[in-house]
Amino acid sequence: MTDKQLILFYLINGFGGLCVLGSYAHGLITNPSIRGELWGAIPDSLRIYYTIFMFLAAGGYFFFTGYILIHVSTESVKMFGRYGFWVINMLYAGIIIPSAIWIYLTFAMIENPNPLLWITIRLVLFTVGFSSVALLASFFTSNFDRSSWLYFASIISLIFFCIQTMLLDALIWPYYY
Q1: Which residue blocks in the chain are alpha helix, DSSP H?
Q2: How far out from the chain centre does Cα 121 lie?
Q3: Transmembrane segments in this chain: where (predicted)?
């Protein structure tokens, strides 16, 4: 029997992940004269935190995604005590899809600022941040196997991921932009 939820999880992460990486590479390569403006007015003293947590969040992604692939059954998981694996797919889509369009929206904002575009960027960042926080919450409220070291590594990784996506990206970055 084909596990459609697992196939969808692989598609979201595989194809979606390539779209995120590709959008960043394409955006940075095709906009060399304005790419420095992606920082907005974030002070140099804060940029080091972005660099550190960007690497921790990206590396951590492999821990919590690996945990889900190894330890979470698509058939018996109870997300938040009652929902199926589809919730994991929704949360990952809420992280991946907006992440793939953020850089294009931001370059458009740099070149032609307008309020609707700014609201869209804020919604994109909050969607990623809220999805990340919800994924972290799901690790505490779902019937996940907590006996593995990978579970605890996933929690720590998700905390780093949430600091990056919710605190640094969705809250602090717009303040300085």
Answers
A1: 4-30, 44-71, 86-111, 115-141, 149-162, 173-176
A2: 14
A3: 7-28, 48-70, 91-110, 116-137, 149-176
